[in-house]
Hints:
This protein is α+β, with helices and mostly antiparallel strands. The chain has helices at 3-13, 19-26, 30-34, 55-72, 122-135, and strands spanning 35-38, 43-45, 83-88, 94-98, 105-108, 115-119, 140-142.
Amino acid sequence: MTPQDIETVERELGLKMPAGYVEFLARYPASLKELYFDFGTWREYLCDKAFIIAADRLITVNRDFRAQLQINDQGSNADFRGYIAIGHDPGYNFYAIDSNGFPVVYFYSMDDGWMFEIEPDLDSFARHLEKSWEEWDLPKGRESRK
């Protein structure tokens, strides 16, 4: 993401992205950009869903995340408004970070509205995704995006 993309995301979401996240996006692991699932007629790249690197996609996913938080937080004392969704799994459960700069990566379950820590930082989350990709029993490949 470019500095202009970062500004656009921050303006659209109304919050500041943590410096550690911005730095991570600048050095996003090339290996993650190459990973995809092959569904025959289309490819689904990991960086389009699980760990998003495109500004427009990040804005859309965060709007969806916030909408879901409003639905699930009815009557709840949980306050997840300060979190930024950085991706999601195939079931549209979200991966998120705290916008206050804490490096922890959280998993937000759509089913029950719970959020819990899954990785201590973005680098270990990237390794977790790559390992999971290798273990998933789906047709897949590795190729630089055009």
